[in-house]
Amino acid sequence: MAATIAPPAAPVAPAATTVPVSSISSGAPASPPSPESAGSAAPLTVLYDGTCGFCTRQARLAQRVARPGRVALRSTAEPGVLERYLGITPEAANRQLYVHEETTGRRYGGAAAVARLVREVPVIGPVGWLYYAPVLRQVADTLYRIFARNRHRISRLLGWQPIPDDSCADGACALPQRPAV
User: Fold this and answer.
1) How does pLDDT run across 45-68, given as a tens digit for each residue?
2) What does the alpha-carbon distance between residue 172 and residue 77 come to, in Å, rounded to a whole number?
């Protein structure tokens, strides 16, 4: 007998994982969407680190394999992008990928964002719902944080420098360095 995995009523992970726009300032967590609402989800905007070669390539791959017209890409290093998405600070954008559902205002970060993108891919989309299984969620969140901290190092090891046609490939949009103390 096959078990059905349903998303929990309230998230277990930190509030930054899934936050509706209306509750960003309070940091209140939102419950994950139901599988029934997945088909009517709004187009997605992926907010990715355009200074990271790996991140840029993976964002573009997600756009290519998702259902046509469902995924728009925005580098968080582009001037004005973070201002449009209230509640995402440069520090937060530097820690994780974000996926924003345009009409619902629902926002996903980190591993939850990856799971949301997977749900847009034909054939393997249902795999994205596995993220909401309790143990898998904690493992995915931990692995994502480790990977995200090392993404620039991984990009260099793979030889994936920022793509030249990315608006921030020349480093002009990079966050300013803190003065040495």
Assistant:
1) 999 998 888 899 989 999 999 988
2) 9
For the chain, report the end-to-end CA distance as a whole number of angstroms.
62
Characterize the bridge pairing of strands 44-48 and 98-101.
antiparallel
Residues composing the chain: 181
For the chain, what is the domain count? 1
Range of the domain at 112: 18-24+41-158
The answer on pLDDT for 32 being more than 80 is no
d(CA 181, CA 176): 15
Whether 99 and 47 have beta carbons less than 8 Å apart is answered as: yes
pTM: 0.66
| CB-CB neighbours of 57 under 10 Å | 16
Structure tokens at 98: 């974000």
6 belongs to a structural domain: no
